[in-house]
Amino acid sequence: MGGLLEQRYRVDSVLARGGMSTVYRGRDTRLDRDVAIKVMDPHLTADPSFVLRFEREARAAAQLHHPAVVSVHDQGVDGDQVYLVMELIDGGNLRDLLNQRGKLAPAVALSILGPVLSALGAAHRAGLVHRDVKPENVLIGPGGQVKVADFGLARAIGENGVTSDSEILGTVAYLSPEQVETGAADARSDVYSAGIVLYEMLAGQAPYRGETAISVAYQHVNSDVPSVPEIPLALDTLVRKATRRDPSLRPANADAFLAELERVGTDLGLTPQPVPVPGSLPENDRTVVMRPVPVAVGATPPSVAEATRPVVPKPPLNPGLNPGLNSAAMTTVHTGPPTPPPGFPAGASATRTMQRPEPPRRRPAQKRKTQAEKLEEERKRRKKLYTIWGSVAAVVVVAIGLFTWYVGANRYTEMPSVAGQSEQNAQVLLSKADLTGLVEKVPSNDVPNGTVISSDPGPGAELRKNEQVKLVVSRGRPVVPFITAGAEVDAATKEIQTAGLKTVKDPTKDAFHDTVPIGKVVGLDPRPGTALALDAPVTLILSKGPPPRLPVPNVTGKTKDEAFAELQRAGLEAVDASGDDGPENNGSRVVRTDPPAGTVLDPTQNKRVTLFYENNNREVEVPDVTRQKVREAKEELERAGLKVKVEFNKSNNATVVNQSIPPRTRVQRGTEITIVGL
């Protein structure tokens, strides 16, 4: 049984440990439920400003209520322990699944990313940005339930300015270019990180790798994400669109990304798949597997690098001496002559006990060498030295040659010729040459889709084994990309140019749109998905804003000339009815219009108003309007040139039960007829 945080949360076993925090399995003793407790490391909590930011971000994250978001139950500070209480997810995370299975099938990858984008979309609508979307923060619970964790913690830690190399290396692989360059992040930054996660699920590895965080960050800023080999073109295009270096070319937020993801999945026939649950946490995520550790309130969590070792005392230098004595106590230094034992006078006794030294022996006289003998000896000595140094030099040369051969032998390979091969065959040839291919797909008019156009370096180049080479693979003829309605002209132009096409404008094709502002893109001509030749023109159809609304004025009772003039001032086109409803002269009076007065017309569809006139010297036949609705009966009688009066129930939905003039009776135009509504 572990200690209690704020006398409520019991801390039990360690679930995971990272560079910034430790996650424990815990128990809420008040509500009697299992929870996950994230305890921040002391090097962060020593800064009071971090504690304030942590509390602010935790409160913001707690406002998110979404089935794919890990719920935040509570946050608090107990002594020097700053902690977060969250929903406990028994299972693993996406990193565990990738470590176990490598790359995932496209249908499974989309089934995982869908809930992630749904959760991020809820956050973006609430004005929150995750800032740290990565496989470690995508949890997979029982039954394959996918949830996103750690909303807001990246901002609190980043603003504190205290990070570890391991944490940077674990996160920088998913940071957007703008986060690397300026530290700024918005919804499109989360879209970029989610696109990198999708790339890793489909390819089995992140697009950028390096020995240092700086080298990986440099690639994010200066390189486009490469194509994912062996996946459908539409899905590869979506990955590249989500990971554009220019934020304006990405989907605007997670909801827009999710809509395009669902569209691509539907077009490719990818049905949702059950999400596999990781069997166990891999070593690089669990960091340390420990027995349940009781955490006392106010205590510092043990460091990952700490090891428990018994302390073994050093043995004394001399076992026979008192172990309490130090080395100075066990050493006696004597200077001068030896001290005589007690009872002997100094000097004399010492002299008597010493023996007289023997005189030195003289060396026998040697015969002096002649000058010739000395020269001969010098010659032999030099010859011997030359022989020795020559042998040494030969050995050194041979050793250097052997070392060079050993170091260089079997470390280099030759770049094979892959142009004209299929992407799959080219990868096989590179694998046989111990090389790795990095694929970049480009449009081409002549080279079929999936065929290698060129390589960098070219064939015959000498390379180190396991080195990466660039394969330029054809995507076939360019395809008009999908552009979201309302996109900026510059963003749409870049997207079309990236597809290998060019943009043109034609004001005659611009159109009115109810919601898209003036000057924004509402469509393309040809339509998205159309295959064209390289550098073929694509017309941007721009919005002219909402269409003007033209209400039909009431010109009943006016002469023909007066009615025509008023309709023209209103921007409408007036025409006369034909036959008996036409005018006798310019003084004829209008009895009705079609469409009726008050109708609002869309000028893009129809601006014509037909005028019907009253001609009293002409006879008309009274139609039968019984059993019709009052509104329908009035319209039919007025079209016949009669005046209508409604009695009893005047509602338009009432039913006509009687009419004052019998049907098929011929009367003068303009005669009044009374209908009875019931």
UniProtKB/TrEMBL annotation:
SUPFAM superfamilies: Penicillin-binding protein 2x (pbp-2x), c-terminal domain, Protein kinase-like (PK-like)
Any one Gene Ontology molecular-function term assigned to this protein's record: protein serine/threonine kinase activity
The reaction(s) this protein catalyses: L-threonyl-[protein] + ATP = O-phospho-L-threonyl-[protein] + ADP + H(+); L-seryl-[protein] + ATP = O-phospho-L-seryl-[protein] + ADP + H(+)
Domain Protein kinase: from-to ranges: 9-264
A Pfam family of this chain: PASTA
EC number: 2.7.11.1
SMART domains tied to this protein: PASTA (SM00740), S_TKc (SM00220)
Top enzyme class: transferase
Transmembrane segments annotated in the record for this chain: 385-407
PROSITE patterns recorded: PASTA, PROTEIN_KINASE_DOM, PROTEIN_KINASE_ST
InterPro entries: Kinase-like_dom_sf, PASTA_dom, Prot_kinase_dom, Ser/Thr_kinase_AS
Chain spans, region Disordered: 335-378, 576-598
Domain PASTA: 409-475, 476-544, 545-615, 616-678
Keywords: ATP-binding, Kinase, Membrane, Nucleotide-binding, Serine/threonine-protein kinase, Transferase, Transmembrane, Transmembrane helix
NCBIfam families (alphabetical): PknB_PASTA_kin
Name of the featured protein: non-specific serine/threonine protein kinase
Species for this entry: Lentzea pudingi
